[in-house]
Amino acid sequence: MNLARIFTAAAQLFGPPANPDDRGQAGRIEESRVAAALIALGAKMAKADGEVRDEDIEAFSRVFRAERGSETHVRRFFNLARQTTRGFERYAKIVARNFRARPAALEDVLDGLFHIALADGILTDDENDYLFRIADIFGFTEAEFARIKASHCGRDADDPYLLLGIDEDVDDDGLRRAYRRAAAANHPDRIVARGLPPEMTALATHKMALINRAYAEIKAQRRKRRAILL
């Protein structure tokens, strides 16, 4: 789903009332609902720690950038949504329902929300709780949430296995498969292919660097362990 199309539809939805006959197919109206949900989640993420800062708004604009001509409508709805975090579950469920067949896209959305949360360099407990609840609605397990969080906040307990989503007892073949799977899913080109803003490629590049480092570290650990056993 192309976010430019989504935001255009949202602008029409939040602008002057349109003749129902002119709105197009039902799918276009549903795209508008998804647009509203994405904007609201980003706005309420900015409010999760109790204060909306300029850097939060700038981070939102980088991750969820509206198509030219629809900025005024998007900004108006953002300003309404950011007044409180109440009701975010409803918006998260709309996004989850529409992307349920594409979990990678849901992870992209969560990545974007982490980007907004960390705009000031700090992830507060309230922000973490907000993100955890959204991840739960999206269908991510606690382990998956920990992996996604680690890709933005650093590795918990310096654990490279967490970033690759595998257990320490995985064999070398399983390790390689996990690395290839993670690298393929998080390649910057995939962000655009999934219909998300090109601005989010910076997040994918960051994740790829962490994935590569984790894989190299595990291989180094295993070489060292084997050398000791010889």
Would you write up a description of this structure?
The protein is mostly helical and 230 residues long. It has 2 domains: 1-153, TerB-like; 155-230, Helix Hairpins (Orthogonal Bundle). The protein contains 12 helices and no strands.
Walk me through the topology.
Blueprint: H1 3-14, H2 26-47, H3 54-63, H4 71-81, H5 88-98, H6 103-117, H7 125-138, H8 142-153, H9 160-164, H10 172-186, H11 188-193, H12 201-229
Helix pairs in contact: 1-2, 1-4, 2-4, 2-5, 2-6, 3-6, 5-7, 6-7, 10-12
Main attributes of the structure:
12 helices, 230 residues, elongated, TerB-like, 2 domains, disordered N terminus
CATH architecture annotation name of the largest domain: Orthogonal Bundle
Our measurement of the CA-to-CA distance between the termini, rounded to an integer number of angstroms, reads 54 Å
Rg measurement, Å: 19 Å
Strand content: under 5%
CATH topology-level name of the largest domain = TerB-like
At the first level of CATH, what is the class of the largest domain? Mainly Alpha
Helix content: over 70%
Structural class label: mainly alpha
Could you give a short account of the major beta sheet?
Answer: none
Listing every helix as H and every strand as E from the N terminus to the C terminus, the arrangement reads HHHHHHHHHHHH
Mean pLDDT: 76
Domains (count): 2
Parts with pLDDT < 50 across at least 5 consecutive residues = 1-23
Helix count equals: 12
Overall spatial form: elongated
Number of strands: 0
